[in-house]
């Protein structure tokens, strides 16, 4: 079994040869979906589960996801935990510093809808999607690392379907 048989479906092997043909756009879309660089933004207890997912037992690296400490080098932001009104401008600023195309995963009940603080606290934002767009929501309090891995795979599928040429056309306008 060679490399050609392990590649995704949209790559076509040439019969009898070891070459692979594909459109450049397909190769770039596959590369973007298979190498998401993420920035952690842990605000509360969900951050522990998020760090656990990046550690050796669950290992986000096997999905091609690499932790970056700088928003300028990241194209994915994990927001996990309670987002307060005081922290909201900083979340938005970090999101704006990320390079295009950028993606957000909201992890946990607090990041997605305000969690148990929805009715009882005036200082908690009722979901991070009120300040930045969210691509994948992961419910739970806190969600298990398996849920975060599934959310990352869902985002990867979304990125594969998104065409780089469509994105670049929108940026120029």
Task: Describe what this molecule looks like in 3D.
The chain is an alpha/beta fold and 173 residues long. It has 7 helices and 7 strands. It has helices at residues 3-6, 24-33, 46-54, 88-97, 109-113, 145-161, 164-172; strands at 12-13, 20-21, 37-42, 66-67, 76-80, 103-107, 136-138. The chain has a 5-stranded parallel beta sheet. It has a two-stranded antiparallel ribbon with strand order 1-2. Helix 3 (46-54) packs across helix 6 (145-161). The N and C termini lie far apart (46 Å). The model is unreliable at 169-173 (pLDDT under 50).
Strand content: 5-15%
Shape assignment = elongated
Mean pLDDT: 81
Strand order of the largest sheet: 4-3-5-6-7
Biggest pleated sheet: 5 strands, parallel
Straight-line N-to-C gap: 46 Å
Would you list the SSEs in sequence order as H and E?
HEEHEHEEHEHEHH
Instruction: Tally the beta strands.
Output: 7
Give the fraction of residues assigned to helices. Answer: 25-40%
In short:
This protein has 173 residues and is an alpha/beta fold. The protein has helices at 3-6, 24-33, 46-54, 88-97, 109-113, 145-161, 164-172, and strands at residues 12-13, 20-21, 37-42, 66-67, 76-80, 103-107, 136-138.
Features:
single chain, 173 residues, alpha/beta, 5-stranded parallel sheet, two-stranded antiparallel ribbon, 7 helices, 37% helix, disordered C terminus
Topology of this protein?
Elements: H1 3-6, E1 12-13, E2 20-21, H2 24-33, E3 37-42, H3 46-54, E4 66-67, E5 76-80, H4 88-97, E6 103-107, H5 109-113, E7 136-138, H6 145-161, H7 164-172
Parallel strand pairs: 3-4, 3-5, 5-6, 6-7
Antiparallel strand pairs: 1-2
Helix pairs in contact: 2-6, 3-6
């Amino acid at each position: 079994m060679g490399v050609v048989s392990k590649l995704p479906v949209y790559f076509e092997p040439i019969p009898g040869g070891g070459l692979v043909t594909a459109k450049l756009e397909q190769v770039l879309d596959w590369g973007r979906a298979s190498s998401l660089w993420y920035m952690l933004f842990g605000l509360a207890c969900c951050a522990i589960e998020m760090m656990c997912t990046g550690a050796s037992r669950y290992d986000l690296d096997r999905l091609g996801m690499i932790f970056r400490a700088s928003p300028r080098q990241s194209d994915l932001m994990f927001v996990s935990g309670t987002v307060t009104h005081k922290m909201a401008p900083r979340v938005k600023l970090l999101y704006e510093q990320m390079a295009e195309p950028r993606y957000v995963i909201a992890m946990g009940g607090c990041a997605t809808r305000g969690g148990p603080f929805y009715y009882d606290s005036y200082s908690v934002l009722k979901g991070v999607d009120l300040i930045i767009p969210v691509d994948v929501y992961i419910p739970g309090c806190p969600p298990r690392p398996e849920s975060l891995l599934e959310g990352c795979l869902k985002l990867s599928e979304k990125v594969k379907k998104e065409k780089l040429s469509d994105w670049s056309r929108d940026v120029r306008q």
